[in-house]
Amino acid sequence: MWKWHAEGRNTGINSQTFPLAFYLVQLLGVFFIKYRCRINLLFVFLSLVILFVLFTTSRRGALIFSFAGVFFCWVIVKKYSFFKLLTIGTAALLSIFIFIKGFGVLGLDFPVLDRFDVSAVSLTDYDSINELSSSRLSLIVHAYNFFSERPLLGQGFKFFFETKGQDVHNTYLQLLCESGIIGTCMLLSFFLYNLTKTVSMIKRYVRVPKDIVYSFYGQFFFLIMCFIENPFSDRYFFLSYMIAISLMYSRLLKEKLGLSV
To answer: For residue 37, what are the CA distances in angstroms to 98, 206, 221?
Structure first.
């Protein structure tokens, strides 16, 4: 069996697994948009190469949400019906299953696959679920308890990190814990406004421009990664988000000025 690791720690192509996984996901999005959601042999080949390298990083979240980002971007841009969404989603999941099983047939051993193993997990066993979530469940429980103490205004900025020595790995729950319902709603309204504005622009086009497609992809990936990471405090993620929304606002400005777009 081939294994990708160094000194017991999975490293992928280099030791910087998190930035590597992030750039791979962005590259996957760029290729996806370049071919305007059309499937051809070159796109499939490049995507498989990117996914192969992404597997070596063992970044489970990047793997899952890159699939989700590309899939929903495809659905929104193509303006598919719910039935077609369901059909394509089923086919995509089946393809992923075959893709993963193919690694086993070829004798490839990726630690990330072990992180999807739920055979020994019991929904009533806190420890097993916490282990499957890489100890994130315990952080989520602490964050919820802190939030329940001061639900409206929260515990204050950086409270969780100063108390527990690390972040929650769930941006939305950490915002509720530190900023309360009021602060969280105020902050997230900016991100939700940008996303809804982008979707409304997509609906106006018969042939959606590439910059708007990437804007949606970048925003969507950023917001769903907030469920398992803290992109707000990570320069790689936040920079990509700023680039994504700048494309949307640039096109919006050009439209208002009546410039050729």
So the answer is: 22, 14, 17
Euclidean distance between CA atoms 220 and 128, whole angstroms: 30
Instruction: Answer whether residue 4 shows pLDDT above 60.
Output: no
Structure tokens at 99: 């893709």
Nearest CA among 201, 198, 242 for reference residue 222: 242
- The answer to whether 39 and 162 are in contact (CB under 8 A) is no
The tens digit of pLDDT for each residue in 117-167 reads 555 556 666 666 666 566 777 888 889 999 999 999 999 888 888 888 888
Ranges 41-55, 77-91, 200-214, most confident: 200-214
Q: Taking all residues of the chain, what is their mean pLDDT, rounded to a whole number?
A: 77
Report the C-alpha gap between 22 and 27 in whole angstroms.
Answer: 9
Q: Token pair of 168, please?
A: 């929650």
Quote the tokens at residue 123. Answer: 């929904």
Q: Are 210 and 202 in contact (CB under 8 A)?
A: no
Of 75, 52, 64, 82, residue with least CA distance to 221: 64
Query: Which parts of the chain fold into alpha helices (H)?
Result: 17-34, 41-56, 60-78, 82-105, 111-114, 126-132, 136-149, 159-164, 171-204, 210-225, 235-257
Give Cα separations from 39 to 35, 44, 213, 255 (angstroms). Answer: 8, 7, 16, 30
